[in-house]
């Protein structure tokens, strides 16, 4: 028989379909439906990995997401290599290629195992804090390279991932997480009244623990048959969505959950264009958590050898996969589930050498079943050690006396050890939902307590502490009905023939007679954290379990403490001589299990990683030889070189043309928001510093927006089109932030206002025509609008047509020259631009880019939010007190402006700088000091925000934020640079046309 540990019958695998695969280059055969772990066990392979620190041989511990040891890399070729997959969840397929990790040169002979022979204490908890202290020169040359080489488990893929991943948003009335007994019952009860239900489970087949339970019956049917019937019923209901291979990894605010669905990982041949994984982003009205419980290992000397696994996992391998974990087993148990595993294995032909029970008396039903199978029971006993190297070969058993002392009694040969350390509820998602956990002193487990008031969640079944099958189904039915808005389910399935678990199990280190400093009793199997490591952390002063966790790395492995946290907590509590709840509880953070980067990224990769937004004139600018720059997600023309011009020459020409005649600029990327409604003016009054109630339709105003702290958040020109309608412009990068800010206040604070907000950024192409001849260029093209100086003064807006296209024409300027901004629907943008360009050639028009725009606005002292602001700048700092409505009763940020810190005399204020040497252009961001050779450690006075060579002034200019800037007019300051300090004079921040006469042409 090619699979010596495969049972002759039973299990849920397809025995008629053999599947060939390789592990570490050796060929094996399994059956369709196997996981890699179950298939390797069927072939007698227990050694599957190496531990992280000591590189000790490790075998499979569990059968699901809790697995800390059997981590593998799976390769499909062509860049499809995934490290750190749990062999317990990798479904085998024809041609699967898997390899072990963290070993060299081979899994059986690993040089790294020498770490295991290090002297006691050398690699103990926190050794890295104590070892890598000196000499200082050794960190970069010795310690860091060594740590980086040793860090990690699997190998990072070298090639790009050729697969693609998708996202899907979904809403439902009830989301049920977990399709075991409680989850199926909840989904049935919730959906029978028509509620929209999503049921997800991480496994390929729904049923959970029912698939491992051969003895129980539900509604008179075998548990497995009832589960299959329940799934079929749910699948037939149109209001139910069933998601297998789908892990609920995170529970976020307002019943928003993240689900990671594996779509093609289990297939031998990948369908063309099929996504590898799908991330579901689900908003649920109600959530029922039926996430089950996790069996805990026992902490005893040498408890980590291959062949030592959880009893529940062994039962899963036997009843679900038809695989025996060994030929001769010792069951080490603290509750009755160990007996259920022993009885099942004995029926399958596994010799049970002994059931070693920590308790004085097992449960009556459990003892009866074991005695009926003629199994040897040793009570008040513990395992005090194991033997074997690459697989366990025997155990030492000791008897526990009344005083807690342990007396060695015998050695028992075996090839597998099954640990039944009790069960703990999987409360991870409940805790992520901000629910409060409650410690059950009697059973030594944490169970869900009060749910978060901002979430609508209920827990049912084993994750709620209801370990018995009948109780789990009853809780699931009740929770599902309540989630769907009904007082009770129509029916509750009846359960018979179960052997319920008793209590929560044993927590902490098992007593033994051996020298505690010479043995390793593992708590965290992957990170090689032992019981003595945790005790050492306590001795060294750590009191909170969060600190103990970080010092020892307990629970920080890829399994996130699923099999180690509770034992670690109990050991720390014992060492501190405190009750467990007083030591604290580690935080359950998402994701529940690792999620691939691809799932998070979805389609946001390669050319879609940073989407490119182009204006309507992009192709025209390209044809004109424009050089582009990225501004947010937009591609914007930076400058338009002619012939051999470099950027400085092109910008100088563009600036002179705008100042002397006329220029054209694409301003389409400015954010645009339509604010509409009978309360639109009041809404604007509350969001902006300026007054808006008396602004007449057809007029514009500069708008200044503050955040709650009183700091400048955004600005822009705002036109009032009608009493109930405003056209709001924002900075290019600030558009989404401003819209979100508006929506936030409208939906949470200003719910009394009747206002609607619409983003129109992409709907309007904006063409800025600036310069003394701007009016002459537009007059032949504009229809139905008088754009004369008298009819359309500065800061006004009119609606009409241009070149036959509808337009919103603004008389505004960001250059200080006569200016208009032509807004037309984006589809007309290019045609209107070309018409204006053709007319402009009569006046020597030049197209100019963002660099010229920056120079022109700096010459006029116009600020750019994000350049002259850094999140700590107030209107007064910028000299914008005039933009604050003095008579306004309130606006967002107003009260913050009166804080003492906002009124300090030494605040940084916007000023201009002129270098003593006019040819020297300062670097933006450069620090400013009072002296040429500042004292080390003394704070700088401020920094340069904008700096250019001004073609208009024929010299360098700069804007800066400077402490007490307005009081320093005429003073000299210094800008320290590597080549020496640069001297500059503080001036007003306006370098051109201070009286503003050029705005009227």
Automatic annotation (TrEMBL):
Domain FAD/NAD(P)-binding residues, every copy: 173-446
This protein's record includes keyword Oxidoreductase: yes
Protein name: Sarcosine oxidase subunit alpha
Domain SoxA A3: 520-602
GO MF annotation: an example: sarcosine oxidase activity
SUPFAM superfamilies for this protein: Aminomethyltransferase beta-barrel domain, FAD/NAD(P)-binding domain, Folate-binding domain
Aminomethyltransferase C-terminal domain ranges (all copies): 908-993
Alphabetically ordered keywords of this record: Oxidoreductase
Example GO biological process: tetrahydrofolate metabolic process
Family membership noted in the UniProt record: Belongs to the GcvT family.
Sequence ranges assigned to domain GCVT N-terminal in this UniProt record: 618-888
């Amino acid at each position: 028989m090619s699979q010596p540990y495969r049972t002759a019958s039973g299990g849920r695998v397809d025995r008629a379909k053999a599947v060939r695969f390789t592990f570490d280059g050796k060929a094996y055969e399994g059956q369709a439906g196997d996981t890699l772990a179950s298939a390797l066990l069927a072939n007698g392979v227990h050694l599957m990995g190496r531990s992280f620190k000591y590189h000790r041989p490790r075998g499979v511990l569990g059968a699901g997401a809790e697995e800390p040891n059997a981590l593998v890399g799976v390769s499909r070729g062509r860049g499809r290599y995934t490290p750190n997959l749990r062999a317990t969840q990798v479904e085998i397929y024809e041609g699967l290629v898997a390899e072990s990790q963290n070993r060299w040169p081979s899994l059986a002979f690993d040089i790294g195992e020498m770490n295991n022979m290090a002297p006691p204490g050398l690699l103990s908890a926190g050794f890295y804090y104590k070892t890598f202290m000196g000499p200082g020169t050794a960190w970069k040359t010795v310690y860091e390279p060594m740590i980086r080489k040793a860090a990690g488990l699997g190998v990072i893929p070298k090639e790009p991932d050729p697969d693609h991943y998708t996202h899907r948003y979904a809403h439902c009335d009830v989301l049920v997480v977990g399709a075991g007994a409680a989850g199926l019952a909840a989904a049935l009860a919730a959906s029978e009244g028509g509620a929209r239900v999503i049921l997800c489970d991480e496994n390929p087949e729904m049923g959970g623990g029912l698939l491992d339970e051969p003895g129980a019956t539900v509604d008179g049917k075998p548990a497995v048959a009832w589960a299959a019937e329940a799934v079929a019923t749910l699948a037939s209901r149109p209001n139910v969505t069933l998601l297998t291979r789908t892990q609920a990894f995170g529970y976020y605010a307002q019943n928003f959950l993240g689900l990671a669905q594996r779509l093609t990982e289990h297939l031998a041949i990948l369908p063309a264009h099929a996504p590898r994984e799908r991330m579901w982003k689900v908003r649920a009205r109600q959530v029922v958590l039926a996430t089950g419980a996790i069996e805990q290992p026992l902490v005893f000397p040498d408890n980590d050898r291959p062949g030592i696994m959880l009893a529940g996992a062994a039962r899963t391998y036997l009843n679900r996969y038809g695989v025996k974990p060994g030929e001769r087993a010792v069951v080490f148990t603290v509750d009755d589930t160990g007996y259920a595993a022993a009885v099942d294995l004995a029926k399958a032909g596994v010799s049970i050498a002994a059931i070693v029970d920590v308790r004085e008396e097992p449960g009556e039903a459990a003892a009866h079943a074991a005695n009926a199978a003629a199994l040897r029971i040793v009570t008040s006993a513990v395992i005090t050690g194991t033997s074997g190297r690459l697989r366990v070969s025997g155990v030492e058993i000791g008897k526990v006396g009344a005083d807690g002392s342990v007396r060695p009694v015998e050695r028992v040969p075996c090839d597998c050890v099954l640990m039944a350390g009790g069960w703990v509820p999987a409360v991870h998602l409940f805790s992520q939902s901000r629910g409060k956990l409650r410690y059950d002193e009697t059973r030594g487990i944490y169970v869900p307590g009060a749910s978060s008031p901002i979430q609508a969640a209920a827990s049912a079944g084993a994750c709620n502490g209801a370990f018995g099958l009948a109780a789990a189904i009853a809780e699931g039915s009740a929770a599902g009905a309540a989630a769907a808005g009904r007082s009770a389910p129509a029916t509750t399935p009846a359960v018979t023939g179960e052997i319920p678990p008793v209590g929560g199990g044993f927590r902490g280190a098992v007593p033994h007679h051996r020298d505690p400093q010479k043995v390793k009793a593992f708590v965290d199997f992957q990170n090689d954290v032992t019981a003595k490591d945790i005790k050492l952390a306590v001795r060294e002063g750590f009191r909170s379990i969060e600190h103990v966790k970080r010092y020892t790395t307990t629970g920080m492995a890829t399994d996130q403490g699923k099999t180690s946290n509770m034992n670690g907590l109990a050991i720390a509590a014992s060492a501190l001589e405190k009750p467990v709840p007083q030591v604290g509880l580690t935080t359950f953070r998402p994701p529940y299990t690792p999620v691939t980067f691809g799932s998070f990224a979805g389609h946001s990769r390669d050319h879609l990683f940073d989407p490119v937004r182009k204006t309507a004139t992009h192709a025209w600018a390209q044809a004109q030889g424009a050089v582009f720059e990225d501004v947010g997600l937009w591609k914007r023309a930076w400058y338009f070189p002619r012939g051999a011009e470099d950027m400085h020459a092109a910008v100088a020409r563009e600036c002179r043309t705008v100042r002397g005649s006329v220029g054209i600029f694409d301003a389409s990327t400015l954010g645009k928001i339509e604010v509409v409604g009978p309360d639109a003016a009041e809404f604007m009054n509350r969001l902006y510093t300026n007054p808006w109630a008396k602004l007449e339709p057809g007029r514009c105003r500069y708008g200044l927006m503050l955040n709650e702290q009183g700091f400048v958040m955004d600005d822009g020109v705002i036109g009032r089109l009608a009493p109930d309608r405003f056209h709001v412009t924002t900075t290019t990068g600030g558009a989404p932030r401003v819209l979100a800010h508006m929506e936030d206040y409208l939906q949470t604070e200003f719910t009394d206002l009747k206002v609607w907000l619409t983003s129109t950024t992409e709907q309007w192409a904006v063409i800025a025509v600036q310069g003394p001849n701007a009016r002459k260029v537009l007059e032949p093209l504009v229809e139905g609008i008088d754009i004369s100086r008298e009819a359309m003064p500065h800061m006004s807006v009119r609606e009409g047509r241009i070149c036959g296209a509808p337009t919103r024409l603004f008389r505004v300027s960001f250059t200080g020259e006569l200016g208009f901004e032509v807004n037309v629907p984006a589809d007309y943008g290019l045609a209107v631009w070309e018409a204006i360009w053709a007319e402009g050639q009569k006046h020597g028009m030049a197209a100019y880019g963002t660099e010229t725009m920056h120079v022109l606005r700096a010459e006029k002292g116009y600020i750019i939010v994000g350049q002259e602001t850094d999140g700590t700048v107030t209107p007064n700092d910028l000299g914008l007190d005039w933009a604050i409505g003095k008579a306004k009763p309130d606006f967002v940020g107003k009260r913050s402006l009166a804080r003492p810190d906002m009124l300090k005399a030494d605040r940084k204020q916007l000023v201009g700088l002129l270098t003593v040497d006019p040819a020297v252009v300062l670097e933006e961001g450069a620090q400013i000091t009072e002296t040429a050779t500042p004292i080390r450690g003394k704070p700088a006075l401020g920094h340069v925000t904008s700096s250019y060579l001004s073609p208009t002034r024929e010299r360098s200019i700069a804007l800066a934020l400077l402490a007490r800037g307005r009081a320093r007019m005429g003073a000299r300051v210094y800008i320290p640079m590597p080549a020496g300090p640069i001297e500059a004079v503080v001036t007003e921040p306006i370098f051109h046309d201070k009286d503003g006469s050029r705005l009227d042409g």
